[in-house]
């Protein structure tokens, strides 16, 4: 007898959870960027997750989205921190953080996180509706 945890009902939730983790890490990276906007030589950091997710979903080209999500290897979906525009600088001191741009990135990331949160909540509402 299979349990609910052994079925594919949590595939979307698991992928959304990974995306939320990445958005949380991006929020931390952006906050660090803003905090270090006046630190000489500091280079802005960002998170690479969307590219990995797109690649994971693209690997199952002719399948439905449900099948693509079910095939995603969660252990391979890991947000990677990288230095953005490491050879570029706004100032003579080598820093490449623009606080105004970081504020825009922060607002965008917060909207993304809230959207992911709504999507997870909707998945659980769907499960509740099925179980009734």
Q: How does the overall form come out from the CA principal axes?
A: elongated
Which stretches of 5+ consecutive residues score pLDDT under 50?
none
Largest sheet: 2 strands, antiparallel
Number of strands: 2
Q: What proportion of the residues is helical, as a percent range?
A: 55-70%
The SS-based structural class is mainly alpha
Our count of helices gives 4
How many structural units, i.e. domains? 1
Work out the strand percent: 5-15%
Mean pLDDT: 87
- Adjacency order of strands in the biggest sheet: 1-2
- Tell me the radius of gyration: 19 Å
Sketch the topology as an H/E string, one letter per element: HEHHEH
What does this structure look like?
The chain is mainly α. It has one domain. The protein has a two-stranded antiparallel ribbon. α1 packs antiparallel against α4. The chain starts with 10 loop residues before the first helix and ends with a helix.
């Amino acid at each position: 007898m299979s349990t609910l945890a052994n079925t594919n009902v949590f595939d979307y939730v698991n992928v959304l959870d990974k995306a939320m983790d990445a958005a949380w890490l991006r929020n931390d990276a952006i906050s660090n960027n803003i905090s270090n906007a006046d630190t000489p030589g500091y280079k802005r950091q960002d998170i690479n997750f969307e590219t990995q997710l797109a690649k994971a979903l693209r690997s199952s080209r002719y399948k439905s989205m449900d099948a693509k999500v079910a095939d995603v290897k969660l252990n391979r979906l890991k947000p990677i921190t990288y230095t953005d525009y490491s050879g570029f600088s706004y100032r003579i001191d080598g820093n490449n953080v623009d606080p105004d741009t970081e504020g825009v990135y922060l607002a965008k990331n917060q909207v993304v996180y809230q959207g992911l949160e709504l999507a997870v909540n909707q998945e659980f509402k769907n499960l509740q509706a099925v179980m009734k």
